[in-house]
Specification:
Blueprint: H1 2-13, E1 31-33, H2 34-39, E2 52-54, H3 60-147, H4 151-183, E3 191-194, H5 195-206, E4 214-218, E5 226-229, H6 231-248, E6 252-262, E7 265-272, H7 302-308
Parallel strand pairs: 1-2, 4-6
Antiparallel strand pairs: 3-5, 6-7
Helix pairs in contact: 3-4, 5-6, 6-7
Length: about 325
């Protein structure tokens, strides 16, 4: 029997067997060489359970595991670098836009500062002229008033002195109001007032200032219109508009009035038949130290102060 098994094994190993050969394993621990099994055409499927294989050919993952890990890591690194680059590009563009915007704002601020400096310089030059002119007139006509004996001339000189006194007082008042606005102490004393009474007072106080051939009118819209506001500040605002109209109206009329656009608002207006204002200058005239006609007396502060007076809260 042993001789037959040995012969079958020899023939199997030499590949000369012509019939199937069965192998019945005895229970135990077996070690199989995979390469040798492949050489003899043996399949590893029917090996005993728990058999150990040696010289096994590694799989694709085991063979290229570290290459795969390296490639994936490199790919993730490139993605991370790309995202970081995108972030910094966006960040740099954002900073660049902010820098350009800041540069534009600084340029605008510089231009405004230069314009303000120019206007203040012009204002100081204008102030010296505006203050000197009435002072010279007051001193000169006061001397003539003392020297002359003619009553008509005395009345004329007295009128000139009075007009220049009023001009000088108005100039000082405007400068004081401007300083209060700058200091933030431009206060209001709110109480009830009648618009008809206020507009009538403005008309009576400024009627003598209008030029010959010009009529200063006030026509009440309502029998009574009581509002809550600061009488002195509102009087100042309306008087500034009327004074501006007087300077540029030589014929026709100047009308003070008011109306109600709706139930919650009251509009006070001054209209005239004067030379008018160019549309592009309508906003500019409310800036400080602005005078559209340098040959007309004034400081260029009245309308600016009136604009600050828009803080008056009016309630019918």
């Amino acid at each position: 029997m042993g001789k037959e098994i040995a012969g079958a094994t020899y023939n199997f190993l030499d590949g000369e067997t012509g019939s199937e050969t069965g192998v019945v394993p005895v229970p135990g621990n077996y070690v199989f060489d995979v390469k040798r099994m492949h050489q003899f055409g043996l399949d590893s499927i029917n090996l005993p359970k728990g058999a150990e294989l040696i010289n096994k050919t590694p799989g694709f993952y085991e063979q290229y595991k570290y290459w795969v890990i390296g490639v994936v890591a490199a790919f993730m690194f490139l993605i991370a670098c790309f995202l970081i680059a995108v972030y910094y590009i966006v960040r740099i563009n954002h900073l660049k836009d902010n820098l350009e915007k800041s540069g534009e704002e600084l340029l605008v601020a510089k231009e405004k500062a230069e314009e303000a400096n120019r206007l203040k310089t012009a204002f100081l030059a204008n102030m010296s002229h505006e203050i000197r002119t009435p002072l010279n007139a007051i001193v000169g006509f006061s001397s003539l008033l003392v020297e002359t004996e003619d009553q008509g001339e005395k009345r004329e000189y007295s009128k000139m002195v009075e007009e220049n006194n009023e001009l000088l007082l108005q100039l000082i008042s405007d400068i004081l109001d401007l300083s209060k606005i700058e200091a933030g102490t431009f206060d209001f004393k709110i109480r009830d007032l009648d618009v008809n009474t206020l507009c009538g007072d403005v008309q009576r106080s400024m009627k003598l200032r209008v030029k010959p051939g010009v009529e200063l009118l006030f026509e009440p819209t309502l029998p009574s219109c009581v509002i809550v506001s600061d009488p002195n500040r509102l009087h100042q605002v309306v008087a500034n508009f009327v004074n501006n109209a007087i300077k540029f109206t030589t014929t026709g009329y100047i009308r003070i009035g008011y109306d109600q656009p709706d139930a919650k608002h009251l509009r006070i207006y001054v209209s005239d038949t004067g030379i008018g204002i160019a549309p592009e200058a309508c906003e500019k005239i409310f800036d400080r130290f602005i005078k559209l006609n340098s040959f007309v007396q004034g400081t260029g502060l009245g309308l600016s102060i009136s604009k600050s007076g828009r803080m008056l809260f009016l309630f019918c």
